[in-house]
Design goal:
alpha+beta; HIT family, subunit A; five-stranded antiparallel beta sheet; binds adenosine monophosphate
């Protein structure tokens, strides 16, 4: 998949669309999801142009990979999710239901998450 520089998260990174920032460093931006599905619903995105988890895992630098994982720990701390836990989701491509084609991880918490896959 070719990276689309007009996707909504690229616009957030360029400052063209506002966001509620939770944490930011040289490689990562974390912000509240605009349409939260849980009491806590944050998105963590790399500042680099990666389309999805597979692209990021294969092509990000060691520094970017480390920064992303450290950001998870930071968001968990800032949002007070350490004790009771949370769910991390990376919807990926069509079968994963990914809507925004800039790699992102959802961090969901604040109450018990529903079953991940509803069967039947
Ligand atoms: P996904 O379906 O995994 O691609 O998730 C995209 C997420 O981006 C959804 O949870 C949306 O609610 C969220 N979203 C879309 N536009 C914005 C925005 N402008 N600011 C924050 N979150 C957004």
């Amino acid at each position: 998949m070719t990276y689309d520089p007009d996707n909504i998260f690229a616009k957030i990174l360029r400052g063209e669309i506002p966001n509620t920032t939770v944490f930011e460093d040289d490689h990562v931006l974390c912000f509240d999801d605009l349409y939260p599905q849980m009491p806590v619903h944050c998105l963590i995105i790399p500042k680099g142009e990666y389309t999805d988890l597979s692209d990021f895992s294969a092509n990000a630098t060691a520094e970017e990979l480390t920064a992303f994982h450290r950001a998870i720990a930071k968001v968990v701390e800032v949002k007070g999710l350490s004790d009771d836990g949370y769910r991390a989701i990376c919807n990926t491509k069509i079968h994963g239901g990914q809507e925004v084609p800039h790699f992102h991880m959802h961090i969901l918490g604040g109450e018990k998450c529903p079953p991940m896959i509803v069967k039947g």
